[in-house]
Write a structure and sequence with these properties.
The protein is an alpha/beta fold. It has 16 helices and 16 strands. It has 2 domains: 201 residues, NAD(P)-binding Rossmann-like Domain (Rossmann fold); 192 residues, Rossmann fold, CATH 3.40.50. An 8-stranded mixed β-sheet has the order 3-2-1-4-7-8-9-10, sandwiched between helices. Strands 13-12-11-14-15-16 form a 6-stranded parallel β-sheet. A two-stranded antiparallel sheet has the order 5-6. Helix 8 links the parallel strand 9 and strand 10.
């Protein structure tokens, strides 16, 4: 099939590349000329495991994927279009401006098209958005009728950054929300490589809700682990022992049950905020999720409090920060606890040296935008921790384990699962009662 993907962020680039890998002819669409040129040279604009080689082969050798600035032509040249543009958090509310703009552009193209065309919303949108916002715009600007002249569907993504390619190739589930049988059949054909048991067929609004239900539950699970980790710190209990035992229960599972400095990234913060706001707006508040947000907003301070408990005042100290992305194996720094920690430390007059294997570029952009410039960006972990008074590791990149034995100053680690503090005289972890 010929498929266009509107937006070349994590979702668009990875989903489009995997679709091309399975034989579809793919066009990626973006308004950023730099991104388009990079993709056409076979170079991803994001860091994601296995994406570099796959995109290069498909773009340069096999000619199965290309990128363009022309939304109109991309719709005319394809049979289906995925909407993968961002839905950022604007003051706790979802921003639908990108969704509205691309829907208008697709609608204008559909006006000139005689063949049936399937439009699939893959962006995360609050329940009701596809039917009440996207569909009316498409009908208005195309002059055509959904379900007859074109199809409308919702197909949420469940990708873990750092594992997005493998999650696309072998997904836990594929949720398909449609209004008509033709759209349902078409969308299932797009995922022709997936086993029958992977599919969940629902209506459009239910598909939107499933995305938020999954993300908010996982955010709640992380926050539950953090609350228990904080309690274990106070009670002198090893939080890892407690959480590992809980995770061994088949009703619970160990996934996302690990305490640390809080959740971040492109999904959990904005998605939980958006569904909380939607609940308030519709007079059905999510009280539990409201508390999840409140707890997570303060959780990054737990790593700073751990440092204070061992070395006293941290004001005007020289500090090494290892890890800037919100989790290892990605360059994404959106809502990263590490950046919140840096913001706090700068307010305390600290001198900061920071390093991350992939997150420096995006971290620097965010910190500079927020006028936080009193930072030295190291070229290696070794350079980062040279001549500092203590080290914070909020993001547990595996390669940081190699440098731990070489550091002589106190080291404070956000994730207890990263190392056993008893193996080091100067290492302290959240949720671990080391004296």
């Amino acid at each position: 099939m010929k498929i266009s993907y509107m937006g070349t962020g994590y979702v668009g680039q990875v989903s489009g590349t995997v679709s091309a890998h399975y034989g579809h002819d793919v066009i990626l669409v973006d308004i950023d000329k730099v991104k388009v040129n990079s993709i056409n040279q076979g170079k991803p604009t994001i860091f994601e495991k296995d994406l570099d080689e796959m995109l290069y082969d498909l773009a340069i050798n096999k000619k199965k994927i290309s990128a363009t600035l022309n939304t109109h032509q991309a719709v005319l040249d394809t049979e289906a279009s995925f909407i993968c543009v961002g839905t950022p958090d604007r003051g706790g509310m979802i921003d639908l401006s990108y969704i509205q703009n691309v829907s208008k552009s697709i609608g204008l193209a559909l006006k000139e098209k005689d063949q049936f065309h399937l439009v699939i919303v893959k962006s995360t949108v609050v329940p009701g958005t596809t039917i009440n916002t996207v569909l009316p715009i498409l009908e208005e600007f195309s002059g055509k009728k959904a379900g007859i002249d074109f199809g409308i569907a919702m197909n949420p993504e469940f990708l873990r950054e750092g594992l997005a390619v493998s999650d696309n190739i072998d997904p836990d589930s594929i949720v398909i929300g449609t209004q008509d049988e033709k759209s349902k059949k078409m969308l299932k054909e797009i995922y022709g490589w997936a086993a029958e048991e992977k599919f969940t067929f629902v209506n459009v609004t239910a598909a939107e809700a499933i995305k938020y239900a999954k993300n908010s539950f996982l955010a709640m699970k992380i926050t539950f682990a953090n609350e228990w980790g904080n309690y274990c710190d106070v009670m002198g209990i090893d939080a890892k022992e407690v959480l590992d035992a809980i995770g061994a229960d088949s009703r619970i599972s160990p996934m996302f049950l690990r305490n640390g400095p809080g959740y971040g990234g492109s999904c959990f913060p904005k998605d939980v905020n958006a569904i909380v706001h939607s609940g308030q707006l519709n007079h059905s508040p999510f009280r539990v999720l409201e508390e999840v947000v409140a707890v997570n907003n303060k959780q990054y301070l737990s790593l700073i409090d751990l440092a204070k408990s061992k070395i006293g005042s941290i004001a005007r100290r020289k500090i090494g920060i290892l890890g800037l992305s919100f989790k290892p194996d990605t360059d994404d720094t959106r809502e990263s606890p590490a950046l919140k920690i840096i913001s706090y430390l700068v307010s305390q007059g600290c001198d900061i040296s920071a390093y991350c294997p992939q997150g420096i570029k995006l971290a620097k952009e965010w910190l500079t935008y927020n006028r936080i410039t009193e930072i030295t960006y190291a070229k290696s972990a070794e350079e980062c921790v040279k001549d500092v008074e203590f080290v914070l590791i909020p993001t547990d990149w595996a390669e940081f384990r190699d440098i731990l034995p070489k550091i002589t100053v106190p080291i404070f680690i956000g994730h207890r699962s990263f190392v056993n503090p008893d193996d080091y005289a100067n290492v302290y972890c959240l949720g671990y009662p080391k004296k």
